[in-house]
Design goal:
Elements (H helix, E strand, L loop, with lengths): L1 E5 L6 H12 L2 E4 H11 L2 H12 L5 H17 L3 E4 L5 H11 L8 E6 L2 H15 L6 H15 L1 H9 L1 E6 L4 H16 L3
Parallel strand pairs: 1-3, 1-4, 2-3, 4-5
Helix pairs in contact: 1-9, 2-3, 4-5, 6-7
The protein binds BIS(adenosine)-5'-pentaphosphate.
The site of BIS(adenosine)-5'-pentaphosphate (AP5) has 31 residues, from helix 1, helix 2, helix 3, helix 6 and helix 9.
Length: 192
């Protein structure tokens, strides 16, 4: 199975992606985690990316696509993937489709985690006390949410029209969100 998660900052994409990957034997690929690894290693990509990440802006599409190309193809060949944080806009989705479709590794299902704005901010500000992430402050997360609303929201229509889009209430306790996501994915898996 090849799927991706869409949700605002703090919606629980990373938390749920790990659980989905474990249940279905998929590879969890987080664009944010991979970018933070580059930043920590001080690679050229990481140095450029950190300027955008610290402000809560999106890293340029071509950097992200170059970084993800090989891991995504390898994961698809190994049995499937859960993408967390990619694509972030319709341009990324279209470029990824053009690369993946001829290889037979395009995404099949998109899962949208819907969470109220106040919960997002509370979660991120709370995490910021210990995460060490420069973008986990109230000011930056408000900007990240604005970027999400402008750039990432259009993906919901994009996937609704093209693939299967599942919607989950992400404002429930973590285990309840997981139960709901897994139940919907079990149903969809039977139709793939
Ligand atoms: P990224 O790392 O993807 O950050 P994000 O999308 O802002 O998401 P978060 O990791 O903050 O939240 P999440 O939805 O994964 O929630 P989580 O499970 O962690 O991106 C960071 C930056 O990298 C971007 O701003 C951008 O600069 C760059 N970037 C990344 N991808 C890019 C791309 N494709 N293109 C361009 N730039 C890109 O949970 C959050 C917190 O809430 C945790 O503390 C968790 O324990 C808690 N929590 C989770 N679920 C619940 C629940 N149900 N109830 C209560 N608490 C919960």
């Amino acid at each position: 199975m090849r799927l991706l998660l869409i949700g605002a900052p703090g919606a629980g994409k990373g938390t749920q992606a790990e659980r989905i990957a474990q249940r279905f034997g998929l590879v969890h690929i987080s664009s944010g985690d991979l970018l933070r690894e580059h930043v920590a290693r001080g690679t050229e990509l990481g140095q450029t990316a950190s300027e955008y990440m610290n402000k809560g802006d999106l890293v340029p599409d071509e950097l992200v696509l170059t970084m993800l190309r090989e891991p995504v193809i390898a994961a698809a060949e190994a049995g499937g993937y859960v993408l967390d944080g990619f694509p972030r806009n319709v341009g990324q989705a279209m470029e990824a489709y053009d690369i993946a479709k001829p290889l037979g590794v395009a995404v099949q299902v998109a899962v949208y985690l819907e969470v109220a704005r106040e919960s997002l901010i509370d979660r991120i500000v709370e995490r910021g006390k210990t995460s060490g992430r420069a973008d986990d402050t109230r000011e930056v997360v408000e900007h990240r949410i604005a970027v999400y609303e402008e750039s990432t929201w259009p993906l919901l229509d994009y996937y609704r029209e093209r693939e299967q889009l599942l919607q989950v209430d992400g404002d429930l306790p973590v285990d309840e969100v997981t139960d709901s996501v897994l139940a919907q994915l079990e149903r969809v898996r039977a139709t793939l």
